[in-house]
UniProtKB/TrEMBL annotation:
UniProt cross-references to InterPro entries, sorted A to Z: SCO1/SenC, Thioredoxin-like_sf, Thioredoxin_domain
Residues noted as binding Cu cation in the record, renumbered to the chain: C65, C69, H163
Protein name: SCO family protein
Transmembrane segments: none
Superkingdom to which the source organism belongs: Bacteria
Gene Ontology molecular function, alphabetical: metal ion binding
Length: 200
């Protein structure tokens, strides 16, 4: 009887270990394609593979989000100030906010969203959307980025998106480094420490 319990326990342990290993390997191999292009809050083109010199902290939002998105953006704005004091923001890391609702979130809407959080318009924190004239193709590109990071989202039909609640740190080559909870779970100090460890 003891042998059966031991065998069952070992099988469960191996199964759990295999599952954990799968997700670790999957995340480690995650990479955003460098040829994906979107447009920023100024209507200018942004190419993910253009600048292989900086880390990137990526958040996905939609401006009509009532809770987790604005909370995350607010916490990232505070983190930005911390990283500016450390002299690394803009030099070693940039922030990228990508809307999952490019039809409503035009460059003008994103610019106003930024102003609401006191975020200055600069190349070091870009807010990305798609070209409304080619919206179906732009939605595919945003989904391609999301799927590369295992970020899932869906519009159930009422404009209130259901989505994964993670932000992502990627390296200079657009490869996954780490992910952090959005909203109230976004720990500014933890994220800063991970960024500084990666820079140093």
């Amino acid at each position: 009887m003891k042998k059966i319990y031991l065998i069952c326990s070992l099988a469960i342990f191996i199964g759990i270990a295999a599952g954990i290993s799968y997700f670790l390997i999957r995340d480690a191999n995650t990479k955003i394609p460098g040829n994906v292009t979107l447009i920023n809050q100024n209507g200018d083109q942004y190419i993910f593979g253009k600048d292989p010199t900086k880390l990137k902290l990526i958040e996905f939002i939609y401006t009509h989000c009532p809770d987790v998105c604005p909370t995350t953006t607010q916490k990232m704005a505070a983190l930005k100030k911390d990283l500016e004091k450390s002299g690394v923001f803009g030099e070693d890391i940039e922030f990228i906010t990508i809307t999952i609702d490019p039809y409503r979130d035009t460059p003008e809407v994103l610019s106003n969203y930024m102003k609401g959080f006191g975020i200055e318009n600069s190349k070091d924190w870009v807010f990305l959307t798609g070209d409304k004239q080619n919206i179906k193709n732009e939605q595919k590109k945003i989904r391609e980025i999301g799927e590369a990071l295992q970020f899932q989202y869906k519009d159930p039909g009422n404009g209130q998106f259901v989505h994964t609640t993670f932000t992502y740190l990627i390296d200079e080559n657009n490869k996954f480094v780490a992910k952090f909870p959005m909203g109230d779970g976004f720990n500014r100090e933890e994220v800063k420490n991970k960024i500084m460890d990666k820079i140093n």
